[in-house]
Design a protein that fits this description.
This protein is of the alpha+beta class and 216 residues long. The protein has one domain: protein yfey like fold. The chain is built from 6 helices and 12 strands. The strands form 3 sheets. Strands 3-4-5-6-12-11-10-7 form an 8-stranded antiparallel β-sheet. Strands 1-2 form a two-stranded antiparallel ribbon. A hairpin with a 2-residue loop joins β5 and β6. The longest helix is centred in the first third of the chain and has 24 residues. The protein is globular, with a radius of gyration of 21 Å.
Amino acid sequence: MINRIALLLFIGFGFCAAMVAQEQAKPMPDRWRGLIIDQSTPEDAIKALGQPVTDKDESFRPYPFDKRISTKGKTFRHLKFKEIKGLDSARLVFTDNKLVCISLDLKDSIPASAIQNNYGIEFEPKIGALSSAENPRDYERHEGKLYPKNYPAGYYLVGMTVEVWIGAAINNSSFSSMMLGSSRGSTGGGAFPGKAMSVIILSRSLENREGADVLK
């Protein structure tokens, strides 16, 4: 009896350890290569990735989240890195010496459907209010979310957590995609068509909260 209990405990522990290891192997929404949004510094990035090819202070309006953020009174330091496996380049943006944006240009595109699976959060296509208002028959709703009946040649997927927004630029214009009909919309969060060409992770600490004090 004792041996059976010990065996069950051993199996249970092994299963839990395997589940933890599997979760740790997945990309986490708020970090990349050990660099964490709202925590890591430029020095941390250089230590992890080597010397950047460019290091500049520039303005910052990250599409598709540019209308959601406030940059008033902030300066932004942009570090661009090359020679990273699987990427054309990586751009890291800092303000107040903290990482607020990770932008990855992918060398090898990733299936759009894999973006949601990898991060383990819900994504939805970004659709402009004007487009959906002018052409309502081209869209349909499922569980309160709006999906195109036919996906365009290029679109964005967006998702969010408490800490970050994530956006992926999707190329849906390949000949094989069109032949297979993968441009056809799929409601209910079905497999998104196309391939991700770039990914952006953006801190929600930049969220525009103008007037929040008045509304409390």
